[in-house]
Each structure stands twice: as C-alpha cells, then as structure tokens.
Amino acid sequence: METVGEKKSFVLAPLWLLVGVPSLALLLLVLVVAAGLDQPLFHALNQLSTYTGPAFWANLTILGDGLVCAVLLLPWIRKNPERVWGGLLGAVIMTILLRVLKEMLGIPRPLGILPEESVIVIGPGHRRGAFPSGHTATIALYAGILALSTTRRLYAGLAIALAGLIGVSRIAVGVHWPSDVLAGLILGWGSAWAGLCLAERWSWGTGPRARRILGGLLLVSALVLLFIDHTEYPGVLIFQRTLALGCLVWGAVELRR
Length: 257
Hints:
68% of the residues lie in helices and 0% in strands. It is mainly α. It has one domain (36-256): Vanadium-containing Chloroperoxidase, domain 1. Helix 8 packs antiparallel against helix 9 (153-172) and helix 8 packs across helix 10 (178-201). Mean pLDDT is 94; it is low at 1-5.
C-alpha cells in the first residue's frame, strides 16, 4: 500500500524485461551487421506480401506512424495519465535522437541501393534516411510505455510482439533494412523508459488540468487523423478512420468523467 508522501513509481516492469528487450535487439543487430545479413534478410522478408497481399502490411505499418500512436494514447488519458505524459516526453527524446542519427549517418534505404525491380514497395518509396527506422522506434516507444508501466506480463508480451511485427512490416513495404528495424526497437524502448522516468520526476502532465490540456490536443489529433489521408499508404483509410473515430469517442468519454 502506498503511504502518504510516497511517490508512485511509473516503471513497474522487472529489470530483466527493461534490459532484456533492448539487449536482445542489440545482439541481433550486431549479428546482422557482422554477418552481412541485411540484404539477404531484406529480400526474404520483403516477399511476405506475395503470400498475404499488400493490404495487410500497409494497414499494419501505419500503426508505427507518429500521429496514429499519439491518438492511441487517448484511451489512457484518465486512468493512466502517466502513460500519456511519459509517452509524449519519450516522443520528444526519440524524435531528437532519430533526426540526429538519420542526418549524421545518411544510410540509404533499399531503393537507394538495390535495383527498383528487385524491391516490392507498398506505399511511399523512400531512398534516404534509413537508420534507424522511425516507424519502428515509434511503435516500440508505445509498446515500451505499456510494457514497462504494467505488471501484467500478457499485456507486455502482446505489446512487444506487436512492435516486432510492425518492425517487420517496414521491411515488407520495402523501406527499411533489418538493421534499421532493430535499431528502431532499441531507440523506441529506451525512449519509453526515459519518458516514464521523466514523467515520474516531472509529474505536471498527470494532474487534472494537464490531462484536460493534453487530452484536448490529442482529440484534435484524432480529428486530423479522421479527415486527412495522412499516411499515404494504399487501402488504409477505413482502418485509419476507424482507429481515429474509436479513440476520439473513447478519449472524449474519458475526459468527461
């Protein structure tokens, strides 16, 4: 039981989970780079849409979009404001590091190196700024916020599995190497931990007034996602608008309580 004056910890996950996920991703990253497996693995995973069809991967990959993940914070706005605040703080950290790494390294994406006819591209094709994967980092941030702030291992496991699957989708749609995805997982997970730690120290975003302000901004984001073809991936508008409408209604109900 929490005593008077005792500060609630926002990071509830055991140390093995906190450290284990990025450590495993780092080990795999080193193996992929050292063994020169980026291109062979890319070609294998880029063919996945030939078995499932492109729509599956297009709809899945938008879950790593920044605006989509921001809107997906809305259901937590009343019961778990620390997740919303930690997620937003983590997103600031992640975005800064992501932009710095992309600009400094300038690693070409598959379309910037491989012949166009050898790459299956679903949606917008990009040629620059491969490392790390921004979509993977974003969904890893979201998954990390949930996994690190709960004691329910099933929820944590599902969140991590979803982040991994969306990471694979970035290869399936033809815009990232496996090494980009693994680096994105590390960046997003670390940003989630940092965001929760900052939220715990600077708890402004968990107060009633802040919840209304942040909730209002996220509701506006949901409206934007509802009406604008934001992601530019083919055949995703129904799924995108369903997510936006669901989170809009859910968030509005939570804010009125």
